[in-house]
Amino acid sequence: MMTNTQKEAELIARLARQHGVTDGAVMAVLEALRRGGGTMAQFSHVDFGGMSQWSSGLTMVGDMFDDSLKAKLNTIAAELSAYLRDHPAKPQRDDTSYRSAAMAHAGSWWPEEFGSPSAAGSQNNMRYAAFPEQSRLVIDDHGKMEIYDTGDHRISGVSQSQSTDSTLTFVSQHGVVRVSDLKRVSAT
User: Fold this and answer.
1) Among candidate residues 11, 56, 5, the one with its CA nearest the CA of residue 19
2) What is the structure's pLDDT at 93?
């Protein structure tokens, strides 16, 4: 009988072969999906043109006009998302996870007291990080940081308009959340 680790390795290799990407590219999507609770991924890998995002109904790759690359990422991410849903991870604690937690804030731009975000990303001169345990969303827009109270929203996705105002909308268990609907708690 195959272990979950063996099943995962075979899945990664099969998807890489089928879609003409490296195993590392598939691993990048899988790890990003794990960080995104299995429903969203944000990562950077050369096989997908650099910074990429995926959630059901939204696929973005480095070259926003490369529809075949978007379709490739969509297919890979959808299958990996289904795999994660069918094979939930068991919590593991070892020396590596303690070291990772201690290093989690190194080089981060958000307030240290929030810890590690459940979702974070950037595009152009805007970046965001969501912290569901603290009910906070941090947005840095051209160097101006604003912190919002997310209430009972558990942010699981993001969309940034490509218009001149670069607005962000988020997805929670309650549907679409506009930043303007959230209470701003501080700004720097």
Assistant:
1) 11
2) 47
